[in-house]
Amino acid sequence: MKGKFITFEGIDGSGKTTIAKEVFTRLKNSGRDVILTLEPTQTWLGDAVKRSYDEEVSPFTELFLFLGDRATHTQKIKKWLEQGKIVLCDRYCDSTYAYQGAALEEKLREFRMDAMEWMKYISKPFITKPDLTILLVIESKIALQRLSNRKKRTKFENMGFLKKVEENYLKLAKEERFVKIDAKKSIKEIVDEAVNYIEELVKSS
Ligand code: TMP
């Protein structure tokens, strides 16, 4: 039996981590065999990624750290899927396409390369395609207001950059596996909607 792979995406401040946790609890309580995982991972590879946020590293170094973490994480995800589990992942490949796509857009344009397309291409051999991607949509201005009282901030959290990231997400969301949910709705409404999409997906197979 093959499981189902569901990813949660959205800009910083979209509330995706809270939603992923609530959806996990809801599915677990209804008796589903479900796993919640995240990227950057809670391993030394994920630690290396997080360390790069606070260091002056090349944006390419940053990109390849995210991809390095993902390649090993994907091996674990594939095992869980082979065991028939529902795997929920808080950020996955689309985070790289959207964030590093924004960070490297100009640099790659010099070489007549489309950043997001190139990242999708090089990722193919070491990712597994999500069956469903839940995108929490929110304007960067509102997302930043929500983040303003957090202690630990990342360099990604500025208006111009997050606006570009959100635009990239909306481009990616044209793919069929995406569903968009308005992140301004209440947590309960968002969780209800997300659980419905997941239950539909599980029943359809
Ligand atoms: P988090 O806020 O979900 O913990 O994610 C940490 C930050 O890392 C967030 O600002 C998004 C960023 N990120 C990328 O830029 N590329 C990626 O591939 C991933 C997984 C996260």
Short précis:
This protein is an alpha/beta fold. The chain has helices at 16-29, 44-53, 59-82, 93-109, 115-123, 140-147, 159-172, 187-203; strands at 4-9, 34-38, 86-90, 132-137, 178-182.
Q: Would you mind describing this structure in some detail?
A:
The protein is α/β, with parallel strands linked by helices and 205 residues long. The protein has a single domain, classed as 3-Layer(aba) Sandwich (Rossmann fold). The protein contains 8 helices and 5 strands; from the N terminus they run E-H-E-H-H-E-H-H-E-H-H-E-H. The protein has helices at residues 16-29, 44-53, 59-82, 93-109, 115-123, 140-147, 159-172, 187-203, and strands at 4-9, 34-38, 86-90, 132-137, 178-182. The protein has a 5-stranded parallel beta sheet with strand order 2-3-1-4-5, sandwiched between helices. The radius of gyration is 17 Å and the shape is globular. The mean pLDDT is 95. Thymidine-5'-phosphate (TMP) is lined by residues 12, 17, 39-40, 66, 91, 95-96, 99-100, 154, 156.
